[in-house]
Design goal:
25% of the residues lie in helices and 23% in strands. By secondary structure, it is an alpha/beta fold. The protein has a seven-stranded mixed sheet, covered by helices on one side. Strands 19-16-17-18-12-15-20 form a seven-stranded mixed sheet, with no helix packed on it. Helix 2 crosses helix 11, helix 7 packs across helix 8 and helix 11 (307-317) crosses helix 12 (328-342). The longest helix is centred in the N-terminal third of the chain and has 16 residues, at 44-59. Bound molecules: adenosine-5'-triphosphate and magnesium ion. Residues 35-37, 45-46, 48-49, 233-234, 264-265, 272-274 line the site of adenosine-5'-triphosphate (ATP).
């Protein structure tokens, strides 16, 4: 059903459980699911869950992974999110085939199960107010108290539930609750809610329903209906597992999936809760869900992250029960490794200053060979136009340079990448006294950047021909937050720690001519980092590139 596994996945404790279940004959086939609530865009944390669930489906045979939209909360859920989630899962390289489901597919069945619980004396309609319910619940040290409505008759409960369903009750007037144990040490077992009244139309079921099922009830029942074998979720659901099992035990569902918890992915220098992502997007702190600074999959994709880098990252961090925070640099290193292997090289000057070769004929031009990928000879070469006037990086020239400055300075010789040796002779300054032009002479005997007399130069700098260069805007991104754990701050709001330098826009960058026809994949701009066209703002007459990631991790040095 699924395509072959994109990467070899290391084993983990969940795979060990599955191996044992197959070995013992408990299961002949494995069915997992990825169950997003369509109330926002997916982030890198979801990628961990996607890679885990779909990865298992890819690696076991027979096995499948269902994509199930947990659409039980019509107020917050939108078609836009459903579309985006499907796009993200596909982009990550996973395929749900025919196995696409919605919790709303099971609304009738869920209702029938709720009626069954009532008939079994295991559920009742409560009519306490929300405040009263809170008071009756007790707390970690005190047992709760039974609601005065707990002993309603089966008939009364069934009638009330039907009335709730039909829209005959106000929101908050009643609640269907499981009848378990108000004194349980586990608060989740103190008569948890099953259905609440909500007068809201649903995108799929329209205005059929005036009640919607709670997550803890809907989730286990949906898993059971689909015959999920292993229901994998994050650790905060550990305390809900007794309830998951209780519902399925009472109902005697045909299947009883095993819930297994693993630790969620936390990354430093960012936030991942959907509530915070909503706040950042809706408050205009970032430019939409696909802002390249966000940890959303659409943001990472727009930034230039590859799906294979994200899968590699998920495989490296592994799956355990230990809570921890992963360094952003781990994600970035997976990306660098992937791009280093794949990205074609190009020359690009981000902060240009003119370099004039005084002894190069003004009417002359030539094509030099640029190596497309130093580690991949098969990637071949490309022609790069060379002429008398070039742009070089402003930082590659220094007037009163220290001895160890191996780039351009008066009297010093450097190699122009793929071109010639040049020696700086003098500079021309503008009215403010700033260097406006750097002048040099070239040695025609060093074509291709090699000298015939064996003379060596220490520095090699990149350049582009003024006449042939294409102009572009380049956006340099940095971490969205200036401290590692913005969400953990108690005194201040996490938004107070947004890094003011998280985006820097360079308007007048000069790129090698071939980049005028750049593909959407990332390039390595030599000596600068990895860059890719911005899929949203770039036009053929106004190129915009994003810096995907720098060549090295320089975050530590900067601080
Ligand atoms: P958030 O807590 O960010 O709002 P959520 O858990 O409410 O996310 P869902 O749409 O319910 O979002 O998540 C779908 C699946 O993704 C769930 O199974 C959930 O456990 C998993 N998931 C969400 N965040 C992470 C994370 N940071 N690491 C691993 N898995 C995650
Ligand atoms: Mg959730």
């Amino acid at each position: 059903m699924n395509e072959t596994t994109p990467d070899a996945t290391p084993s983990n404790f969940i795979r060990h459980i599955i191996d044992a279940d197959i070995e013992s004959g408990k299961h002949q086939q494995v069915i997992t699911r990825f169950p997003p609530e369509p109330n926002g865009y997916l982030h890198i944390g979801h990628a961990k869950s996607i890679c885990l669930n779909f990865g298992i489906a890819n690696d076991y045979d027979p096995a499948t992974c269902h994509l199930r939209f947990d659409d039980t909360n019509p107020g917050k859920e939108k078609e836009e999110y459903i579309t985006a989630i499907k796009e993200d899962v596909s982009w990550l390289g996973f395929n749900w085939g025919e196995e696409l489901y919605h919790t709303s597919d099971y609304f009738d069945q869920l209702y029938a199960y709720a009626q069954q619980l009532i008939k079994q004396g295991k559920a009742y309609v409560d009519s306490l107010s929300a405040d009263e319910i809170r008071q009756y619940r007790g707390n970690l040290t005190e047992a709760g108290e039974n609601s005065p409505f707990r002993e309603r008759s089966v008939e009364e409960n069934l009638d009330l539930l039907e009335k709730m369903k039909q829209g005959g009750c106000a929101e908050g007037e009643h609640l269907l609750r499981a009848k378990i144990d108000m004194a349980s040490a586990n608060i989740n077992m103190r008569d948890p809610a099953i259905y609440r009244i909500k007068h809201m139309a649903h995108p799929v079921t329209g205005d059929t329903w005036h009640i919607y099922p709670m997550y803890d009830f809907a989730h286990c029942v949906s898993d059971a209906i689909e015959g999920i074998t292993h229901s994998l979720c994050t650790l905060e659901f550990e305390d809900h597992r007794p309830l998951y099992d209780w519902f399925l035990d009472q109902l005697g569902t045909p299947a009883h999936p095993q819930q297994i918890e693993f630790s969620r992915l936390n990354l430093n220098y960012t936030v991942m809760s959907k509530r915070k992502l909503h706040e950042l997007v809706e408050g205009g702190f970032v430019n939409g869900w696909d802002d390249p600074r966000l940890p959303t999959l659409s943001g990472l994709r727009r930034r230039g992250y590859t799906a294979s880098a994200i899968r590699d990252f998920c495989s490296r961090i592994g799956v355990t029960k230990k809570d921890n925070i992963i360094e952003m640099s781990v994600l970035e290193n997976s990306l660098r490794e992937d791009l280093d292997a794949k990205a074609p090289r190009a020359l690009a000057v981000l902060d240009p200053i003119k370099l004039i070769i005084d002894n190069y004929p003004a009417d002359q031009e030539e094509m030099l060979d640029g190596v497309n990928h130093p580690k991949k000879p098969e990637a071949g070469k490309r022609p790069i136009p060379f002429a008398k006037e070039l742009y070089i990086e402003r930082s590659d020239f220094m007037e009163d340079a220290p001895k160890k400055f191996f780039r351009l300075s008066q009297g010093r010789e450097v190699r122009l990448r793929f071109a010639y040796y040049v020696t700086c002779t003098h500079v021309v300054k503008d009215e403010q006294g700033e260097v406006a032009e750097v002048h040099c002479t070239y040695d025609p005997a060093t074509r291709g950047g090699k000298s015939e007399d064996g003379r060596k130069v220490k520095g090699t700098i990149h350049w582009v021909s003024v006449k042939h260069a294409v102009n572009a805007e380049v956006r340099l991104y940095d971490r969205l937050f200036s401290i590692p754990a913005p969400a953990a701050e108690k005194e201040k709001d996490y938004k107070d720690f947004i890094n003011a330098d998280s985006i820097k826009v360079l308007k007048n960058c000069q790129l090698e001519a071939s980049l005028g026809a750049a593909s959407t994949n990332a390039y390595q701009f030599e000596r600068q980092g990895y860059f890719c066209l911005d899929s949203v703002d770039s036009r053929s007459d106004k190129l915009v590139f994003n810096r995907v990631v720098s060549l090295r991790d320089s975050w530590g040095n900067k601080k």
